[in-house]
Automatic annotation (TrEMBL):
The keyword Disulfide bond applies. GO terms for cellular component: cytoplasm. InterPro entries: Ig-like_dom_sf (IPR036179), Ig-like_fold (IPR013783), Ig_I-set (IPR013098), Obscurin/Obscurin-like_Reg (IPR052385). Residues 21-94 form the Immunoglobulin I-set domain. This is OBSCN protein. It comes from Psophia crepitans (common trumpeter). Gene3D superfamilies: Immunoglobulins. The lineage of its organism: Eukaryota, Metazoa, Chordata, Craniata, Vertebrata.
Length: 101
């Protein structure tokens, strides 16, 4: 705001969050049936952008079978007590970036 007494003008500043990139990609995991499988990915920055985990084409959410954690720039997926049906590609997507294992 600029106010001269009898005149006033206002403006606004808009800041766009810069896009996060994946700096530590996913690594393949081999687990025995009944064990947990842990996948980690690290981003270039903490971000408010939507990050999503997938098993094949199915988006994953935190529940009793999957635990999704975010600690700073580190994103972790834990598949609890995996079965043979859990075999397949795991992917992590943020913005336009994807990592697959």
């Amino acid at each position: 705001v600029c106010d001269t007494g009898d005149q006033q003008t206002t403006a606004a500043v808009f800041v766009k969050e810069s896009a996060a990139t994946i700096v530590e990609t996913l690594k393949d995991v081999t687990s025995c049936e009944g064990e947990d499988a842990v996948f980690e990915c690290r981003l270039s920055q903490e971000t408010a952008q939507d990050a999503q985990w997938f098993l094949g084409d199915v988006p994953l959410q935190s529940n009793e079978m999957n635990e999704i954690r975010v600690e700073g720039t580190r994103h972790t997926l834990i598949l609890r007590k995996v079965t043979l049906e859990d075999c397949g590609p795991i992917s992590f997507k943020v913005g336009q970036h994807t990592s697959v294992a």
